[in-house]
UniProtKB/TrEMBL annotation:
Gene3D superfamilies, per database record: MetI-like
Recorded GO MF terms: transmembrane transporter activity
Domain ABC transmembrane type-1: 22-215
Record GO biological process: amino acid transport
Protein name, entry field: Amino acid ABC transporter permease
Length: 226
């Protein structure tokens, strides 16, 4: 019975389908993390400029994506907004949009805290030698905040990757969706769900473990230059 259940993974193109679904998961995660990082870095930096006109906007944006769960956000962007605004977005585009905005909101707060933890003398010294505000952030504040940002950045990235497991709710053909399809096609074998989800769990573990190892190496590297 166990041998038959294991063979299900290798029947036909099941393994290839799972790997293809895993690629979709990774693709959505990587694109979302990249866009969210750029946007979060900009928003987090702007938040620390002391501009009272933009701070309320940032706080509202941050609170929305902190308080509202991801599933309602996916439904809003996939079912409600496109219908009311007459916009046609694919499930993958919606996934990237929602996860990017979520990542940017969380990451902007991380960037804000890291920059504000740097001594004010650093900013004042940069202005003294003639650096503009943009140059001060680019060459002084942001580089010095990276060691403090990195652990939280990796933790947030792993959260994004793990949360992609809910994308089957809007019909994204990710690794969870493919796994569920294989399970349903082999409903007579009670061991198949255990094996499929164990394999999927292994995929997620390997990805997040590699991210964790990379984070530790980068953190040690940056600490050497402090």
């Amino acid at each position: 019975m166990q041998i038959l259940a294991i063979s299900t993974i290798f029947e036909g193109n099941n393994l290839l389908r799972l790997l293809s679904g895993l690629f979709v998961t990774i693709e959505i995660s990587v694109i979302s993390i990249f866009i969210g990082t750029v946007l979060g870095l900009i928003l987090g930096s702007l938040w620390t400029t002391g501009n009272h006109l933009i701070q309320p906007f940032f706080k509202l944006y941050l609170e929305i994506f902190r308080v509202v769960p991801t599933i309602p956000l996916l439904f809003l962007f996939y079912y409600i907004f496109p219908r009311n605004l007459n916009i046609n977005l694919s499930s993958m585009q919606v996934s990237i949009l929602v996860f990017s905005l979520w990542f940017a909101a969380e990451f902007s707060d991380i960037v804000r805290g890291a920059i504000q933890s740097i001594s004010k003398n650093q900013r004042e010294n940069a202005y003294t030698i003639g650096l503009s505000m943009f140059q001060t952030y680019r060459y002084v504040l942001v580089p010095q905040s990276i060691p403090n940002i990195l652990p939280a950045f990796i933790n947030l990235s792993t959260r994004i990757i793990k949360t992609t497991s809910i994308l089957l709710l809007i019909s994204v053909t990710d690794v969870i969706t493919v796994g569920q399809q294989i399970i349903e096609a082999n409903a007579q074998d009670t061991l198949v769900p255990l094996l499929i989800y164990a394999l999927i769990a292994l995929f997620y573990f390997l990805i997040n473990f590699l991210l964790s190892q990379l984070s530790q190496r980068l953190e040690r590297k940056f600490r050497k230059y402090e």
